[in-house]
Predict the 3D structure of the following.
Amino acid sequence: MDQELKVLDLYTKTDARKIASFNNSVKSEYTVSTNVESFEADFEWLELMEGTVMYIDNILRNPNRFIINEEEVVNVEKARRVTVESIKHLARNTSMIQKIEKNGDVKPSKILNINKDENYNTYENRVIYTLIKNMQMFISMKKRDLITKSFVKDSKKSEYHGTSRVGSELVDINVSMASKSNTSSEYGRNNDLTVEERIDKLELQVSDLTRTDVFKLLDKANVARVTPPIKKTNLILKNTNFQYAMKLWNYLQAYIDNGNKTTKTSNTIKENVTVKNMFDDVFLLNYLIVNSLGDNAKAAKQDNNKELVETLTNNMITKIVEINSDLPLEELQKVIGDKIAVIRNKKEATIEEIQQKLNVKIQSTISKIVSFEFRS
């Protein structure tokens, strides 16, 4: 703050004509370039998978299935069981009756055998099978290039060249500035587990899913994986477990295009009037600082200080007279004289202190006056 006041004080004490001459002669050009690179460590996939594993497990424990009836005519001794369908088939095919006993019992030579088999190769189960395979590949891909830190790299560079003339004095400046900042943050823990530990735990959970009977049957049958778009069957649309599974499915499909969280932005400013004026002001302040040094500068400073004191004194006296125009001249002189006498008695008093105290007095008097008029 003190440095700022010194710079402003230097500007205030400089001859206004010199400043105007400098500003009117300034010719300058500048360039400001900014580059920002950021990377966001994205673990939305991890949180989504962690929250979906239990729903996939529910599906595999209560899988969708259909019954396959395999019909085969076999010798009666090979028949596993006789069903209503077997009797109906025999009645329609009497040639397979070997003989009829006296008591009415029928002894067939052959009979229809029906084997009922549960099949898990349904569309919905293949969707879950494919989803688990996709999860395994995705986790493996993420572990190969695991980055747990987010970062932002911000760099700025400015170049400024300016020239000006004050009387016979030619002023030239070249300024170059560069700044860089790197910030990073580690992805937070969850339940006291690091990211690496959470991924390892997730891998074990997905591995458990591959050990279920349904998954093993489909994997052994080498069923074809399901490709998008997903058919909107009643089970997929209405079952809560499938709704969570489809949310993860859609996320993984979209991640192929949207997974990259790295962003880079660059910007160059060359023709902003406000920025140019600020650079020119800095040029002026640099000139005033350098110009304030040396014997010539000291002499000029003394002249300027003298002129400044006279100007300030005239302005303050004018204000005092205008505001207190109804006071007798003797009383007005006494008020000003007493204040100056008090201040002069302080050895450490400066022009700035005098100005400050007089300004306080003036402002206090102004606040008490509603209106005034000059006396002729």
